[in-house]
Amino acid sequence: MATIAILSENPSEAWWMAARNAKPVPRELRALLAGKSSAIDVEPDRARELRAWCAALPGWDSERPALVFGGLVGRPITTARRSAGTAVTVRLAPEEAALLQALAAERGQTVAQVLRESALTEARREREPARAADSAKRRPR
């Protein structure tokens, strides 16, 4: 099961208004949007569909989402990435493709989503030591 919960510190009033005014609102999200529940459990496939519905509404911020989708890996494709994104072609050996396809199937993602999320995670991981070193240099001794 995947858990969908309200992120209380999210300030996105625009998204909440758009979600509450949307027609139709997915049945599973009605209790959250009405404030009758702070979390729900749904099947992972349905959670991915609901996350895509949420991300398609105005005001959704994938960096600071209004709802947290626990138990799911990756983010939905946002309008910003779809319209202003850069296309990349990757050639994979058959054994690499097989490994990535199996991982993507386990996660309920496409191979492109797995590659993007893995690359972003690695890039963030490599930048963290550099940030820590920069901030240590700036601190007075």
How does this structure look, described?
- Helix 5 packs across helix 6 (111-138).
- The protein has helices at 13-21, 30-33, 44-55, 79-84, 94-107, 111-138, and strands spanning 2-6, 39-42, 67-70.
- A 3-stranded antiparallel beta sheet has the order 2-1-3.
- With 141 residues, it is mainly α.
- It is globular.
- It has 2 domains: 2-83, no CATH class; 94-138.
Task: List SSEs in N-to-C order.
Answer: EHHEHEHHH
Largest sheet: 3 strands, antiparallel
Proportion in helices: 40-55%
pLDDT averaged over residues: 80
Envelope shape: globular
User: Radius of gyration, Cα only, in angstroms?
Assistant: 18 Å
Number of folding domains?
2
Number of helices: 6
Number-wise, the strands total: 3
CA distance, first residue to last residue:
50 Å
Assess the beta-strand content as a share of residues. 5-15%
Largest sheet, spatial ordering of strands? 2-1-3
Given the helix and strand composition, which structural class is it?
A: mainly alpha
The poorly predicted ranges are none
Short description:
The protein has a three-stranded antiparallel beta sheet with strand order 2-1-3.
Q: Which descriptors apply to this entry?
A:
three-stranded antiparallel sheet; 141 residues; 3 strands; single chain; mainly alpha
